[in-house]
TrEMBL record:
The keyword Coiled coil does not apply. The active site is at C88 (glycyl thioester intermediate). It holds the Pfam family UQ_con. Keywords: ATP-binding, Nucleotide-binding, Transferase, Ubl conjugation pathway. Belongs to the ubiquitin-conjugating enzyme family. Residues 4-143 form the UBC core domain. The lineage of its organism: Eukaryota, Metazoa, Spiralia, Lophotrochozoa, Mollusca. The keyword ATP-binding applies. This is UBE2N-like protein.
Length: 143
């Protein structure tokens, strides 16, 4: 662990390593312990079930007073994730609370893969497709 890293980040990182979440792997970068390489497998029974998605997660200096920055590196066809990999998730924006942890954020992203929300889209074209022809949108899945 990097010297000068807040105790909370050290504890959260240790817990992620010792008690991994099923379907989620978060490894701190060797050169920056605030940056994580994340791999999320598509949840069983979801349109993304067969997928393996790479994400990046970064803890800003203000963490835990401000939310982590997270984005998909793997292209995905999802109404709440745009072409740049940005994620529309309330806890990453206005519903962030210092009581939440990296683990909570990753579980919420995994849940978003299970239950896309076309009524609160980031990718309007995908949301429209989801609403008008969900089966086709699901078939498009990830790119």
């Amino acid at each position: 662990m990097a010297a000068g890293l807040p105790r909370r980040i050290i504890k959260e990182t240790q817990r992620l390593m010792q008690e991994p979440v099923t379907g989620i792997q978060a490894i701190p970068d060797e050169s920056n312990a605030r940056y994580f390489h994340v791999v999320v497998t598509g949840p069983e029974g979801s349109p993304y079930e067969e997928g393996v998605f790479k994400l990046e997660l970064f803890l800003p200096e203000e963490y835990p007073m401000s939310a982590p920055k997270v984005r998909f590196m793997t292209k995905i066809y999802h109404p709440n994730i745009d072409k740049l990999g940005r994620i529309c998730l309330d806890i990453l924006k206005d519903k962030w609370s210092p009581a939440l942890q990296i683990r909570t954020v990753l579980l919420s992203i995994q849940a978003l893969l299970s239950a896309p929300n076309p009524d609160d889209p980031l990718a309007n074209d995908v949301a429209e497709q989801w609403k008008t022809n969900e089966a086709k949108a699901i078939d498009t899945g990830y790119l």
